[in-house]
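S1.2 Input.
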Amino acid sequence: MSIFDEIREGCRAVAQHATRVRIQEARLKDYARDFPIAEIGAATLDPATHYLGHGKDTLAFILALDAINFGSGYFPHVRKRPGHSGYFTMAAGLNDWFQGEGAPSAARLAKLTQGDCARIFGQDLGSPPAAELMGLFAKALNDLGALLLARFDGDPAQLVERAEHKAEKLVATLRIMPFFDDVAIWQGRKVPFMKRAQLTAADLGLAFDNEGWGRFDDLDQLTIFADNLVPHVLRVDGILDYDPDLAARIDREDPLEAGSIEEIEIRAAALHGVELLKERLHQAGHAHITSVALDYLLWNRGQEGRYKAIPRHRARSVFY
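S1.3 Output.
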């Protein structure tokens, strides 16, 4: 069984026995029928906030970006650039660092401090949530530098090349680092999500037009990137139904505990719900649609005002 099969099976088991979150399967038929297939287009990375077109240095940027591609539970409390979300604030900060100083060596990554990260990402260490997040960013980048030095002669290209164009192999390598090893425990069962490890393969594909360092022959096997936005979109669209107490906690913006039953069930139900949606779209003749394509569409839908007007769940997690 591939890691992608393990993810799907684990999330299916959670979704089918969840007590806090339910998939409204009766609504899926209409949801699939009315789904805006025409809006599914080629995803892109924004060159204004991503270090693109620089060969191996772009590869290093993507690895660094996805090493720190978490913090949604902290983002309401951090300093954001005007007009930028939390994610794009951090991506822009990393892009500026690469633009100004060039790609950092593995040794440099391995020695970055909380203060270095505060400077790179424009954060105030006087804010406890921002300080905590910058400490976690430093640890994530330290881990990446240490892995590159220990196993790949400090060369990020070697890390990607040894995956031999297989996203599954890339995921296996990345999860050596604790902050990439995205596995929850639900009712005594291990439930893998591997959100950021899968996203790294997808981002490399976007950065390199699915060629060279961006070619992964099993990208169609990826699941959605289980976070807190796609579940929110599915909730607002009536596909996910939350227990009244859980819904009330989210609506009043109470944070959830990372790794709690509720948080795991939300992520798992969203992932399995998208798999069910994909099945119905395939049955309707749209066999080319992948889980990742649905993720991109739903994530972008979440940027619309009607979704932003309603709180989504927040958890201070290193996994999203």
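S1.4 Remarks. The longest helix spans residues 128-151.
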